[in-house]
Design a protein that fits this description.
Order of helices and strands: HHHEEHEEEEE
Number of helices: 4
CATH topology: Nuclear Transport Factor 2, Chain: A
Largest sheet: 7 strands, mixed
Helix content: 10-25%
Keywords: Signal
Low-confidence stretches: 1-19
Number of strands: 7
CATH architecture: Roll
Distance between the termini: 96 Å
Structural class: alpha+beta
Protein name: Nuclear transport factor 2 family protein
């Protein structure tokens, strides 16, 4: 019973807050900007997130394809936890070693146009997985080709940290480094 009058009094004072000290109406303040719409995430097939190894296989499958093939961003995003980060390590021929830490969306904005020019990333060796309960570290060497059967253009390694949320595995962190493939010596 006591709360009702307090609420009514608060509501009665609300219009007064819209008046200036001189009793003139104040202009309404613009509403705060809407929260950004979260990017679309697809549902994954049961096997695509069933293990850290499955995440790696799905990642290679989702980003690989011929020139002109659109990549399914919703499927790629669905592999990564909402707070995942990407680290790109490298060695620039003129500037030396570097490390670039990127949120997932800016990384995808940079990488997808490159992938869509023809990009096939495959494991170059079996991944090494270190797992303890709901955490896993995956180390997977890879080779990149511009066409499915073409020569290796780049080699490198992916280091993924993965976590189990009780229902599925997620990529929580991806670090990688690539280098131009060295052509084999001529006989």
């Amino acid at each position: 019973m006591i709360r009702r009058p307090v609420r009514l009094a608060a509501l009665a004072l609300a219009p007064a807050a819209l008046l200036s000290a001189q009793g003139k109406p104040q202009p309404l303040q613009p509403a705060p900007p809407a929260a950004p719409v979260p990017p679309l995430r697809a549902e994954l097939a049961a096997g695509e997130a069933a293990s850290p190894e499955a995440l790696v296989n799905a990642l290679y499958a989702f980003i690989s394809g011929p020139a002109g093939q659109k990549r399914d961003l919703a499927k790629i995003r669905a592999l990564f936890h909402a707070t995942a980060r990407v680290e790109v390590a490298g060695n620039h021929p003129e500037k030396g070693a570097f490390l670039r830490v990127i949120e997932l969306e800016p990384f995808l904005a940079f990488a997808v146009p490159q992938w869509e020019t023809g990009f096939f990333e495959q494991a170059a060796a079996a991944p090494v997985v270190k797992r303890w309960q709901g955490l896993a570290q995956v180390w997977t060497p890879y080779a990149i080709r511009r066409t499915a059967g073409g020569p290796v253009a780049f080699t490198g390694v992916n280091a993924l940290q993965c976590a189990w949320d009780g229902k599925r595995w997620w990529i929580t962190h991806l670090a990688f480094e690539s280098a131009a493939a060295v052509p084999p010596p001529k006989p």
